[in-house]
Amino acid sequence: MHNAKRPDPDDLPSPGQLLRSTVIALVAAVLILVTVVLPAEYAIDPTGAGRLLGLTEMGEIKNELAEEAEEDRKLHETEDRSSALDALFGLFVSRAHAEEAWRDETTFTLAPGEAAEVKLDMAEGAVAEYRWRADGGRINFDLHGHGEGKSTSYEKGRGQTEGQGTFTATFAGQHGWFWRNRDRADVTVILQVRGAYEAFTQSRK
User: Fold this and answer.
1) Is residue 100 predicted with pLDDT exceeding 80?
2) In the chain, what percentage of residues exceed pLDDT 90?
3) Cβ–Cβ contacts within 10 Å for residue 57, how many?
4) Mean of the pLDDT values across residues 65-83?
5) Predicted TM-score (pTM) above 0.90
């Protein structure tokens, strides 16, 4: 058996070097925590670096999804079936206004957990009118806008089957809906829109 060679004391780091390395590692860990982890996971951005890197938005989306899932869990605890009366009312409303002229209309079906967005490119002060209904179940939605470094939310709903009204763009940018099916069956959404907007776009999530 061979004894290992004892290291030369001169080759070992001094206490001061060890302390300096520890401090540098701690500072780096704090910087990563503040500029990356907190914005991306919890939308906490004390330095503003997370917003510049696009990480704060990730954290905001995660928080929204967590809140949405919790609200849906509570909703399903108290309501486990769709209302036939709501479906009949939506059908009645759609037939009553069948002759109205809508500029754009789209129909799409979302499987459980699936999401979709519809966006309108609007100038500041432009007004849009809308009407939508969900067939086959209930759905969550967020009517919001973003552009020019700004964002806003006009209306949110959980476990809804229809909606209608108007909104005015508070700034130039994209304004529209985010829908997510948190029900247990496919839901078909029918949306009708008209008003002062330049483009109508739709995407799946």
Assistant:
1) no
2) 49
3) 17
4) 69
5) no
Report the amino acid identity of residue 105.
E
DSSP string, the chain: --PPPPPPGGGSPPHHHHHHHHHHHHHHHHHHIIIIIHHHHH---SSSHHHHHTHHHHHHHHHHHHHHHHHHHHHHHH--S--HHHHHHHHHHHHHTTTS--SEEEEEEE-TT-EEEEEEEE-TT-EEEEEEEEESS-EEEEEEEEETTEEEEEEEEEEESEEEEEEE-SSSEEEEEEEE--SSS-EEEEEEEEES-SEEEEEE-
- Distance CA(43)–CA(64), nearest Å, equals 10
Picking from 197, 199, 198, the residue whose alpha carbon sits closest to that of residue 166 is: 197
For residues 61 and 102, the model is more confident at 102
179, β-bridge pairs: 116, 141
Name which of 16-20, 171-175, 194-198 the model is least confident about: 16-20
